[in-house]
Amino acid sequence: CILFAQGEFMGGLNPWDRLAYDNIWPRYQPDPVTGITPTFFSLVALFYPSVTGILAGSNRSAVLAKPSQSIPLGTIAAILFTTLIYIFVVWIFGLTISNVTLKDDKFVVATIAYPCDEVVKIGVITSCIGAALQCLAGSPRLLAAIAMDDAIPFLRFVRPKDATVEPKKAIWVTWLIASVPTLAGNLDHITPIVTMSYLLMYAGINLSCFLLGFLKSPGFRPTFRYFHWSISLIGCVWCLGLAIIISWTMALATIVLVIILYVYNKKQKSEKDWGDVGDSIRYNVVTNTLRELTGTTTEHFHAKNWRPQLLTFVDTDDCGNPTNLHVLSLASQLKLGRGINMVVSIMQRDRLSPANDQVQPSNAVMLGMDFTGGKIVSTDPMHTSSSGTGGGCFDQFEIVELVRHSKVLLQRHMQRENMDGFAEVAATSHSLSEAVWSAVIHTGLGPLSPNTVMLSLPRDWSAMGERRSADYISTVRGIMNMDKALLLFRGNETYPSSNDVIHDGRIDVWWVIHDGGLLLLLPHVLSKNNVWGRYGAKIRIFAVITSATEDPRTLHEAVTDHLARVRIDASVTVVDLSMTTIADDMREENNFVEGMGGCCGVPGSDSARGNVNNNHNKTVGEVFSNYVCEATYSTVLGDEEMNIRNAGRESVQAITARSIMDHVIKGEQGALTGNDGEQARRLRTAAAFNRLLQQHSWRSNLVVTNMPLIRPDKPTGDFFDYVDTMFDGINNLLLVRGSGNEVITTYA
User: Fold this and answer.
1) Parallel, antiparallel, or unpaired: how do β-strands 733-737 and 702-706 relate?
2) Which strand (E) or helix (H) includes residue 453?
3) Which are the contacts of 561, defined by CB distance < 8 A and separation ≥ 6?
4) Best CA proximity match to 11, nearest among 88, 106, 89, 109
5) Number of neighbouring beta carbons within 10 Å of residue 251
6) Can you give the pLDDT at residue 300?
7) Closest by alpha carbon to 348, among 357, 359, 358, 339?
8) d(CA 540, CA 692)
9) CA-CA-CA-CA torsion for 477, 479, 483, 488, nearest 10 degrees?
10) Dmax of the chain from CA atoms?
11) In the chain, what percentage of residues exceed pLDDT 90?
12) Does the pLDDT value for residue 574 go beyond 60?
């Protein structure tokens, strides 16, 4: 071209084909073959594949002596050298040959070649073969590396037996991929697709480098001293912008293909030997969020933002097998509360006798979350001792293996229940109650600590023995003293797992004590789960009248209006237990709010409603009845309401616990005095409540109600007798005790 410009060699051109500065400005014309008028960016798409060999060194990194030095130096030198050549060739031809000649003669380089055009033709063939060999040397190795990393599982068939073996299958696949598109007959149709693939690949590389550099990941240590994450960000934006400008449809299609490959790879859930920048992003977001929440706890959440962060204890047998798995099903179905699920198992072991080196397993009790504290020992083999006197558990290898076995089984059951969360199993040779309390205190981190604890409710407490039943009651009382919401669940084989679907499901809520609205929120969350919500499980609220001064109609209207304002879909039925001691059996006496204000207190005023802390300990009637007066109501009820009220009063007078009925039959009713007489009255209340349950909720899939009060000055068996009498014949029962905070709000 230089000889042609000086007029010393014409080649196959004529003198009038030499025209200086004829290509300074663009003059796009339709292609004579395709009829398509090119644009600047369409020409960039055609030219771009010629500058995409910058990763050739990286593809051959396995055979380089010093990749960290050779790749940056060789890549930058190659980019500079080829850029100078491209600029020189383009400018020398553009400044010398006329615009018409360049458009008519597509092989003008060979036309003016010196001494003959065969020199250029042979050079083109040689360079094509060289480029093809380069692709066949680098691309198959890249394809084989992807297959060996199992990044795209359907490419496993090209995986070589060893990294040092030539990837023959990958070579044939590469040849096929490169050869088939050439059958189109026009490379102009192929180059835009290749360009998009390269641009998105470079955008992905730049994005990864930007994220790792910006997040300051310790594992990302670039040796190039001039690296800065801002350069990678500019490169990523530049590549994406260029792809969209060239062809937004082709760019969108390529992005969709990349997303499909990403989702496919994620669903395989295969373990990778290399890190994921997504993990670094999630970790950085979590740590920054926790720093901002430093000094806060779950109590700082407004009722609008409250969600059940559940710590679930699951029973095990002596072999570490999880039992009473219905609590896992319930915990999994509460996940739409958008809280964190933590599952804890605490295996209680008898203290080892110095004369006996064998491990003597006692009845294992509960399952648990990741914690270390008090007298609990972690499943981490590095923590092999428990505090306190009397020796630990993890100094025995058999116990370590048993705990690991139990944890694996627990995680499998969680997966079977489609339950997301954290699980751990620990062992203690000391008191169960202290172990559970320590778990409740030390589980979680700051505001991510559990605010709700769920235990399984024993079905046959007499089989537990006096010591274990007393320890259970002590555990429950300790959790309540920590201001945690408490759930006691008793289920059987009729309770649905997370893989079942309930048809015509019913969740009955027997609402006695207001308790911050937790009794309303939990059934609502359950009803949104696919198990209950696919066919529209119904929530039925049974508002319990506990005083003859409460107006049933007013209570029905107030509760219905309250449900509408808190946006919970449920039917309301008012039942009358005013002739029983149900209110006293459900709430703390010393926390009862007095001073309703004269004869009547109007809801909405401070005297009637009290503050948030007072409301939770009031009965539903005290919170929602428009008037609470000394005079007994004598209202005209509907047939259904009248039947319910009469059933309640009849049950108080005629239905008693079996043991009390025996006393009546024997004529010993008058001998029941003191504690026995008080327990007899409580059991008559429980029997009356049970009759209403049998009448209205015997077909319900789940019954939810307030947890009866555990009185510290009463025998342990009193609580279990009361619960067994009250819920006799009920398959699935959830007892709820709130923390004293409002968990539901009328705010949108």
Assistant:
1) parallel
2) strand 452-456
3) none
4) 109
5) 21
6) 60
7) 359
8) 14
9) -90
10) 137
11) 14
12) yes
pLDDT band at 47 (very low <50, low <70, confident <90, very high): confident
Burial label for 734, CB within 10 Å (0-12, 13-18, 19+), is: buried
Residue 456: both structure tokens together: 């399984």
First to last CA, the chain: 76
694 within 8 A of 725, measured Cβ to Cβ: no
Cβ neighbours of residue 507 closer than 8 Å, sequence gap 6 or more: 523, 526, 527, 532, 537, 538, 539, 540, 700, 701, 702, 704
Of 233, 204, 202, 179, nearest in space to 52 by CA: 202
Q: Which H or E element spans position 252? A: helix 248-268
Q: What is the pLDDT of residue 725?
A: 92
483 close to 516: Cβ distance less than 8 angstroms: no
Is pTM beyond 0.85? Reply is no
Q: Which residue has the tokens 């083109």?
A: 124
Nearby residues of 355 by Cβ (< 8 Å), 6 or more positions away? none
Where is 345: in which H helix or E strand?
Answer: strand 341-348
Q: Indicate the residue type of 150.
A: D
- 386 touches 435 (CB < 8 A): no
Question: Could you give the residue ranges of the DSSP H alpha helices within 8-157?
Answer: 40-47, 56-59, 67-94, 99-104, 108-111, 118-148
Determine whether 427 is exposed, middle or buried from the number of CB atoms within 10 Å of its CB (0-12, 13-18, 19+): buried
Distance, CA of 488 to CA of 327 (rounded, Å)? 9
* The residue count for the chain: 748
Task: Look at phi and psi of residue 35 and say left if phi exceeds 0, alpha if psi is from -120 to 50, else beta.
Answer: left
CA distance 620 to 635: 19
**Contact residues for 139 (Cβ-Cβ < 8 A; gap 6+):** 59, 170, 174
Rounded Cα distance between 455 and 433, Å, is 12
Question: Do the beta carbons of residue 159 and residue 214 sit within 8 Å?
Answer: no
Position 413: which residue type?
Answer: H
Residues 367 and 343: beta-carbon distance below 8 Å: yes
Give 462-492 pLDDT, tens digit per residue: 778 788 888 899 999 999 888 888 999 998 8
d(CA 138, CA 543) in angstroms, rounded, equals 74
Under a CB-based contact definition with an 8 Å cutoff, are residues 198 and 207 in contact?
no
d(C-alpha 588, C-alpha 710), whole Å = 9
**How far, in Å, CA of 748 to CA of 729, rounded?**
39
CB 476 within 8 A of CB 508: no
Residue 360, both tokens: 């003597």
Question: 241 CB contacts (<8 Å, ≥6 apart)?
Answer: none
Q: Encoding tokens for residue 43?
A: 């020409």
Confidence of residue 295 (pLDDT cuts 50, 70, 90): low
| Residue 10 · residue 4 · CB < 8 Å | yes
The closest of 86, 52, 60 to 200, measured between CA atoms, is 52
Instruction: Tell me how far apart the alpha carbons of residues 353 and 272 are, in angstroms, rounded to a whole number.
Output: 46
